[in-house]
Design brief:
Two copies of one chain form a homodimer.
Chain A lengths: L1 E6 L5 H9 L5 E6 L2 H10 L3 E9 L3 E2 L1 H10 L2 E9 L3 E4 L10 E4 L1 H6 L1 H5 L5 E4 L3 H10 L5 E5 L1 H6 L3 E4 L9 E8 L1 H7 L8 E9 L4 H11 L3 E10 L2 E12 L3 H11 L4 E9 L3 E2 L2
Parallel strand pairs in A: 1-2, 1-3, 5-16, 7-8, 7-9
Antiparallel strand pairs in A: 3-4, 3-11, 5-11, 6-9, 6-10, 12-14, 12-15, 13-14
Helix pairs in contact in A: 2-3, 9-10
Keywords (chains A, B): Amino-acid biosynthesis, Aromatic amino acid biosynthesis, Lyase, Phenylalanine biosynthesis
GO molecular function (chains A, B): prephenate dehydratase activity
Protein name (chains A, B): prephenate dehydratase
Chain lengths: ~280, ~280
């Protein structure tokens, strides 16, 4: 039995991603109110694995989770890319004409902007969570209310789906990271031959060409960048922090490249080495 | 009289940033419900200038605004960095013991996480906007309710500030862009000698070293990167889009550098050339 900590409730996209990643395994979900609580759950019990959203094609990076990950010392052991498709759902005995308010997470609402623009008579109210909105409609028997949530959440909470696939962009996906306590990570990590991705964070002086040097070296070692994001460092105006994901074919070459860039960077930290994620896209 | 379109209401951080940037000028604010509406206002009346948040030190980039900017054809003509300090405010005849719910924008709530953790008895409810939360407490006379908003918003809506500076990190700032219709931008743009920053977006094939080449060239031309962010392009899995901000001392050198990287990139677009922003930090 896998213990998986997620932010959110049953039927949330975190729940779906956890079940997809650990397909065929029995899962015990630990539903947490915040991402801080998710990391706390992993720290408390090293058998607990966290599944957390890290970036979405529409909404961008969840910088807060990058930072929590860096501070926690926990390690990435895998990733999963989930195609996000939203449904519009209400109480089973209601229909379109009854709905005057829709509830969902701000990001989900943003992803359904075109749909919402076509229904200007429906008041849009933000809530904490997609699945929670569905659950509230069921438990509080909220008439006239719809939720934007996954089809799975609508079904779980006995709601009627009035429309599926209401997201504006059909290429909408979220990337989730599978994160474990460092001790547990050694046990769970993929075989070296399977590892072809790594996530790292480092600091560079804010001078001309410092990033260019680091990327040139990675390029010489045939390491491919799959993501880069700079962040100003709070309280240190002349240095920048970079979150970088790299992909590679040869694990040894990758290790050599990391050794080669280390003297040029400050505070280089590997957040995890893992196999490129399965995907539902 | 300057016409400035912002997302949000009077007393919002957008309002404060607009008044700081155009200090000493008379401003007519056009308060819009969404960022889409802000760009629509600029398109409709080329005398209208937009002020929009583009990144925050804690919450990260507002990717949606990057994308709206790219699609709109509008041009960046300036920037402003505003130190974000939140207040905790309620109806004037209430006090700490009365408060059982706090309302604010999700990002503001996130920025006050430590404060909220110290007051676990107060229920946290997300709303659309910081200033709007203050306004609602006033207009609906909401007892037991507090807003997290700017001190200016609390004062504007006649609320009592129970605590100032409740943000967890005192280096919390938001960078705002000043954006104009392309025709208007020519008129408003700074003198060439003052321009020392530019924002651009381009596409690169997802191959080893493609970004490294571009950054090497920028480095040869003494162009300094102040921000870089990669975005997967929806529906084109093998290409990445990069949003890059650069700083430079010599405008001609910068122009030459752009010419030099153009053949290596696809769809390179300059979003604006401007003077480094004034700042309240």
């Amino acid at each position: 039995m896998r213990k998986i900590a997620i932010q959110g409730t049953l039927g949330s996209y975190h729940d779906i991603a956890a079940h997809k990643y650990f397909e065929g395994e029995e899962i015990q979900l630990i539903c947490c109110a915040t991402f801080e609580d998710v990391f706390a759950a992993v720290k408390k019990d090293s058998d607990t694995i966290a599944m957390l959203a890290i970036e979405n094609t529409i909404a961008g990076s969840l910088l807060q989770n990058n930072e929590l990950l860096r501070q926690s010392g926990a390690r990435i052991i895998g990733e999963y890319k989930l195609r996000i498709s939203h449904s519009f759902a209400c109480l089973p005995d209601e229909d379109w004409a009854d709905i005057n308010e829709v509830n969902s997470h701000p990001i989900a609402l943003m992803q359904c902007r075109d749909f919402l623009n076509h229904h200007p008579q429906i008041k849009v109210v933000e809530t904490e969570d997609t699945a929670l909105s569905a659950e509230m409609i069921q438990t509080q028997n909220l008439k006239g209310r719809a939720a934007i949530c996954s089809k799975a959440a609508a079904e779980r909470y006995g709601l009627k789906v009035l429309q599926e696939g209401i997201e504006t962009n059909k290429h909408n996906f979220t990337r989730f990271l599978v994160v474990a306590d460092p001790w547990k990570a050694d046990e769970l990590q993929q075989q070296q031959a399977e590892i072809n991705k790594a996530s790292m964070v480092f600091t560079l002086p804010h001078t001309e060409g410092s990033l260019s040097q680091v990327l040139s070296i990675l390029s010489f070692y045939n390491i491919n960048l799959t993501k880069i994001q700079s962040l100003p460092i709070i309280g240190r105006e002349w240095e920048y922090q970079f979150y970088v994901d790299v992909a590679f074919g040869d694990y040894l070459r990758y290790k050599q490249a990391v050794a080669a860039i280390t003297p040029l960077t400050k505070e280089l930290k590997t957040l995890g080495e893992y196999a490129e994620g399965k995907s539902s896209i």
